[in-house]
């Protein structure tokens, strides 16, 4: 899956670490020279941008108006946005029994509402300028169900899965493609923080977790980044509305 991004102007929301940063690196390796990465942490974002030669913009996914302004800012900085990645997310825990309205609203705002309006604004600007665009939403295998302690997270990602399909249908006439990736359990700095914060994990949690996996590893960001780069590139042709499971556990399978 070779990708050519020499003509790409990309905005990666949630692009300062983990999978988002891996996608940024993949785009640069394929020739992208116009790239804005966005995230909450100014310190982390500035460091990542300097490392890969991108532009950093601070943005909080909980603030949808800020995300809309981010798209306009990235458009002004690069002249246009031809590729958008929605890679940021909140992963707070909550079950159907203990999720509060405040937690539910925050998860939907961060994981579904702001990505929706980022897609909307990129599409509006692309239509106004008359150019094609491609969008990739980073989802999760939890869209198929999810663990009991991931009720609001699973619901928010399932909502974004529907947005992916609906937007792909609505925007195909404008040559704007929208696809998504359902990621499995992934080895990222964010996951390390989550395991320590919510599950009391120690330094050896990753080795223990990987030893229990069919392929002896968690999903790696670089592997997923290659697929995202392809989806965003002209080489993926007319592909739109696709949601690809990227995991070693097959949804719907049962123990044999």
From TrEMBL:
InterPro entries: KR_dom, NAD(P)-bd_dom_sf, Sc_DH/Rdtase_CS, SDR, SDR_fam. PROSITE patterns: ADH_SHORT. Residues 8-188 form the Ketoreductase domain. This is SDR family oxidoreductase. Belongs to the short-chain dehydrogenases/reductases (SDR) family. SUPFAM superfamilies: NAD(P)-binding Rossmann-fold domains. It holds the Pfam family adh_short_C2. The lineage of its organism: Bacteria, Pseudomonadati, Pseudomonadota, Alphaproteobacteria, Rhodobacterales. SMART domains: PKS_KR (SM00822). NCBIfam families: PRK06198.1. PANTHER family: 3-OXOACYL-(ACYL-CARRIER-PROTEIN) REDUCTASE, 3-OXOACYL-[ACYL-CARRIER-PROTEIN] REDUCTASE FABG.
